[in-house]
Specification:
Strand content: 25-35%
Shape: globular
Number of strands: 8
CATH superfamily of one domain: Gcn5-related N-acetyltransferase (GNAT)
Distance between the termini: 23 Å
Largest sheet: 8 strands, mixed
Radius of gyration: 15 Å
Low-confidence stretches: none
Helix content: 25-40%
CATH class of one domain: Alpha Beta
Order of helices and strands: EHEEEHEHEEE
Length: 153
């Protein structure tokens, strides 16, 4: 099975090309595809570790990893995104598995939370996350908060 090459870097170690690829992918999906005009560059990039899946010399899947209290009270995963051209490869599952593994490696075994778009609730549940909130709107898109306890993974 073809898989992306994984890169894990804090903000200050990202190359200019890494940063361009990340911002391009996030804008392509979150702003254009989801028709959600919002300011994606939110000053949390500097507080996160960036997990990138690289294929064809560009970032095609990505998420941000946060230690506890850098975004939520717990460790968390955010800005989970797969390039539309690569979604048929099921790399979203590989990305989540790698993200969970990296959070444990980087910050120790701890609870992980995510703010999940509602239509992806079952996807995250397949990785052991459980829903812990009612639906709420974030940037006018329905979300739920989900949690993964260390014993669940």
């Amino acid at each position: 099975m073809e898989t992306p090459q994984w890169l894990v870097k804090p903000f200050d170690e990202l190359s200019t090309q890494n940063l361009y690829d990340i911002l391009h992918l996030r804008a392509k999906v979150f702003v254009v595809e989801q028709d959600c005009p919002y300011l994606d560059v939110d000053h949390y990039d500097q507080k996160s570790v960036h997990l990138m899946g690289v294929a064809d010399n560009r970032v095609v899947c990505y998420c941000r990893l946060f230690d506890a209290r850098n975004y939520f009270e717990t460790a968390c995963i955010g800005r989970v995104v797969i390039d539309p051209e690569y979604r048929n490869k099921k790399w979203g599952h590989l990305l989540m598995t790698e993200a969970i593994r990296e959070l444990y490696r980087l910050f120790g075994v701890q609870r992980i939370e995510i703010s999940a778009q509602c239509y992806l609730e079952q996807f995250y549940a397949s990785h052991g996350f459980v829903t812990i909130s009612e639906m709420y709107l974030e940037d006018n898109i329905p979300h739920v908060r989900m949690r993964l306890d260390p014993k669940s993974s």
